[in-house]
Each structure stands twice: as structure tokens, then as C-alpha cells.
Write a structure and sequence with these properties.
83 residues; 3 helices; 3-stranded antiparallel beta sheet; 27% helix; globular; alpha+beta; 3 strands
Length: 83
């Protein structure tokens, strides 16, 4: 029986981190930590030449250079990425 590695499946090696450690690394790299929003739900994502925009369930939106999806394996962000 053949054994497949992460590299075989994804084309890259994978690094596995605990969720809290990953969030800490991301948070500490932010130039302006006041922009972190918790408890919001992304309902749609738009990608254009200026960056990305996440539309949120509360009617607001956030714009940026990239979106990092940490919302699980069956996530809107993952689904949108493959459109």
C-alpha cells in the first residue's frame, strides 16, 4: 500500500501548529494590533487588483492584502479560495 505525504497531496511540506500558537505568531507580526476583530463571521470574500475584501455578517467589511483562513476544514474561506 502506497503512503502519501503532505508534499504528495499539497505540493508543499506542512507545518502543524496548535491554533493558539499560530494566532500568537500572526498577532505579534501585525504592525497595528488594534485592527484584530473577534466574534465576527465572514459571509463573502472579494478579490481584486487592490487586495481582498471580507464582507462580515454584521454588515461591515474589512479590506487587506490577504485573508488567512483559520475557520476549519469546511470553511467559507477555503470554499471561496477554490472558486
Amino acid at each position: 500500500m502506497a503512503r502519501y505525504t503532505e508534499h504528495d497531496n499539497h505540493g508543499q511540506n506542512m507545518l502543524v501548529l496548535e491554533h493558539r500558537i499560530f494566532l500568537k505568531i500572526l498577532y505579534e507580526a501585525l504592525p497595528n494590533r488594534s485592527r484584530v476583530r473577534l466574534g465576527t463571521k465572514v459571509i463573502d470574500i472579494y478579490d481584486n487588483v487592490d487586495g481582498v475584501e471580507a464582507r462580515l455578517a454584521d454588515g461591515t467589511s474589512e479590506k487587506g492584502d490577504m485573508i488567512v483562513g483559520c475557520d476549519g476544514g469546511h470553511s467559507l474561506i477555503r470554499e471561496t479560495m477554490w472558486k
